[in-house]
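Incident log, structure service

09:12 report received: a user says their structure output differs between two submissions of the same chain.
09:20 pulled the input from the user's history:
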Amino acid sequence: MSKTRADDTLIAYNKNGKEVAQGATGTEEVVVTGLTPATKYAEGNFEVAYVDKDGSSPKVKVPAFETKPQLVESFTVNPGNVAGHIGDNVDINVATLSPNDATDKVVKVTSKDPAIANIAWNDSAKSFQAHLVKAGTTEFDWVSEDGNASVKQAVKVDPVLMSNFTLNPEAISGVEGSNVNVGVATLNPANTTDKVVKGTSKNPDIATIDWNNDAKSFQAHLIKAGTTELDWVSEDGNAHVVQPVTVTAKPAPAQPAPAKPASAAPAGK
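09:34 re-ran on a clean worker, output below:
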């Protein structure tokens, strides 16, 4: 053996005496690959010795050691982005994770704005589940348990729009000076976010419409004989109804019967 290590090569052997790794000459280092991550190896599982052109030094047992964990390098979630309506629940899974031998495959997630959307593990579905609460946009922040990989997932929550509604009565008719209560008879879907509707008259000289707080309904005021329409629209602008209005004139007041002329008394009586 040489008196210096400049020409020596460090060799590693397993416990069966088989060479498993060879370091670069003069480095006094050797790297053993293929070990199981996060695993304890007992003293003597490996031995090392210096080798040069003249021979080999005695083998020395490597002290007990533990390999580092294999960190998660990347992962993806499915769906990539979340989009839905208020009240929806969306299942989300980890689609891919690498490397396959990552020591800790657990990922966790938080919502940047839980008032818009929150997320939790659903044990029944064996997946994460996002609960869409309020219209708006936010993000879910995903991170591997080992802290080495992360994903941002965009979330968009839309309101549930009204598809249609009906009125009671469907058409209005009455005489000048009368009032007619109008209510919303049906509204779809039942989980519409904004259930407000509003009405306007095409000809306010004939009829007007407003909210009557005492009656807790809309009230049409029939003003002048003629025909017009009330235009109704949902507050979200997605549903529309046209309600015909017919106003008839008040009947003319009854005229009193003409007075009968007084009869004259016969002469000489």
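09:41 both user submissions now match this output. Likely a transient worker issue. Closing.
09:42 reviewer note: The radius of gyration is 44 Å. The mean pLDDT is 93.
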